[in-house]
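ugh ok so i messed up the first submission bc i forgot one of the chains. this is the corrected input, ALL of the components this time, i swear. 346 residues overall. if the numbers dont match what u have on ur side tell me asap before i send this to the collaborators (the ones from the other lab, u know who)
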Amino acid sequence: MHEQGLARSLLREVKAVWAQHPGSTVSQVDVQAGPLSGVEPLLLADAFARLTQEQFGTSIELVVHQVPLTAICNQCRREVTIERFRFVCPECGGTRLTETQGDCLKLLSINLAAVA
Amino acid sequence: MSEKNYQRVYIGRDVLAEDRIEAATQRDLWTRQGTLVVNLVSSPGAGKTSLLEATAKHWQGRHSTAVLVGDLETDRDAQRLSPWTKVAQLTTGGACHLQMPLVRSGLRALGNPRVDFLFIENVGNLVCPASHDLGEHLRVVVLSVTEGDDKPAKYPKMFRTSQVMVISKADLLPHVPFEVDAAIADARRTQPEIACLTLCASNGAGITPWCQYLEQTRQRMLENLPCETT
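and heres the new structure output, hopefully the right one now
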């Protein structure tokens, strides 16, 4: 259910871009997900394939690029990788960190092909 | 495929960015009207409704409150709360979390009241509600001692995105294998700033400090309001 909702939100974004490129078809969508994105890549790809199949009669390929969780330390300003969800800066011990990657589902790009 | 009939459009945007902007706008509106909004999340049966019942009773005649209560089915929670507070049931049908359109419809059903505290009781689920900002000022995760103290480690996103952890059903602590310090340590590994409160809604232990915490948070919100330039 969760992945279905995210797939719908993703398709809404894709359609908005698509609408700006008349005479084209979407051949592939690339997204980025990480440990705190709340996304299981296989389930999301499956949900997206089903949804696009339902709406367009053909499924659009979804490529999920998995990335590590990174954050910037508000104290020493270094960007660090967060291992095992331990939000403590390994450089200075600071505990105020802001996620920079891997905490959301990000739409990276859309491949458009001209309709033959 | 030739370059001419193929192109890649780069976006680089959070899929939920639009929802987040909408939530931030709503939060700003609630801040300006002096309503502190609390999004209560937990697994099913952790005691969110009991906590709200105890809170509304505690504040009877002192603060105005409203509750939007989300469930997959039935209006039992709304019926339970209705003697103590304004309440609207949000029946999701099958959706595993609440989103802004449902919150808005609940507020409309209540006549968009201006209250001191608005509570949004989310669907019982430690996964999906973590990804959805509802415009709240505080996300409070309720963890009952019967669930086990390993939940903060098992559900990092929910605890990372919460500002408060309430450990509920504390009267059962002598009967269950739950280490309060272990749960707090795990929660703080993921969210070092998280405030932790232990309470029991059924006998009232810890309800006063919980209510005071909310009152102080609202007070800080009111003090930080930008001066109106008329």
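quick check: The first strand of chain A starts at residue 24 and ends at 33. that seems consistent at least. The interface with chain B takes residues 1-2, 5-6, 9-10, 13, 17, 21, 24, 27, 31, 35-36, 38, 85-88, 95-96, 104-114, 116 of chain A (CB under 8 Å).
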